[in-house]
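Something for you to look into today, if you have time. I want to see for myself how the chain folds. Leave the record below and I will have a look.
***
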Amino acid sequence: MTLFLNASSDLAVQKAAEALREWGQSRQGLGVALVYGPVSAEDRLYHSKCPVEQRSVTALAEALEEIGARWKVLNPCESDFIMELVEYDVALSNLHGPYGEDGRMQGLLDYLRVPYCGSGVGASAVAADKILCKRVMLTLGVPTPGWHVWSGGPVTWNGRPAMVKPPFGGSSVGMSLVRDPADLPGALAEAAGGEGTPVLVEEYVTGTPMTVGLLELPGGSVVVFPPLATEATEADFYDADTKLDVDSKGAVTVRAADLAPAVLDKITKHARTLWDGLGLRGSARIDFILTEDGDPYVLEVNSTPGMSRDSNFAVGAAMVGLTHTDVVLAMLHEALTRPPYDVPLPTPAFAGTTRAREAAVSP
């Protein structure tokens, strides 16, 4: 059973941080493949619009420099990606969306027997699929806004505002808040994309967005960061443009949530339930909406939290005394101390040259 720590477990967290720093000193020259590239629509958006200094990959690279690692950014879109990947001790992925955090990259790394940070195939796949994750929440007894799946055909409207969401991807890409029935068909088409995938139509619950980070520490304990309240000040909801904040307008405020003890207990309980129920590991971030009546509803689970210096995850870590570099050390430690995926698979053999297939979508 997982031992969960919280902000009041300051001594235990401090000891874990000291152990991490000592461990890091003994791993100078550790080979880390920092996996990053414009694979999904979400990552292509970040790659094209987000300033370099605001990117997670920039902050992660700085942390690896501080640790003394031997690291390199490896782009999955390059033809020599796998051949380079197997030359490193561990993979730290900064990919989001399909082919990054949905279990497919994790399965590749398992097959290649390259240790990697974060959740495995199953937990990654469930967390990344908003529809499947909703179904798992219901079985775990975790409250989530009402919803249904649209798979084409007639469009129904119950007269209440709804969030229309693609089943995969993050950063609110392709997501719409629909208040007028005339806008619903366009929102569904945008969320379905060119492939016509099923769309999640979720009841729009008003309240304060909350986010809770979780980080695995040496010994297998997991620290639950204090909830953060995130409020968009220039948008109807926390949309993609607000999250990118390309113009640094400060269009979103992030602060420690001032919660009654009973509400804090509910949010923390749901976060712990999802960590164990989904089989998450390494790190995760769980997003909630808190109603005016003090009822928290889970919106989604992120198995690969954003790791820029100012990210919600980094802010939450700082509130329990962990630096950005401490977080990276914890992620690397979990990956390298996890029992290896050891089955009788052949050692992959690579040809001297590989033929790259033409990309279906231009980066």
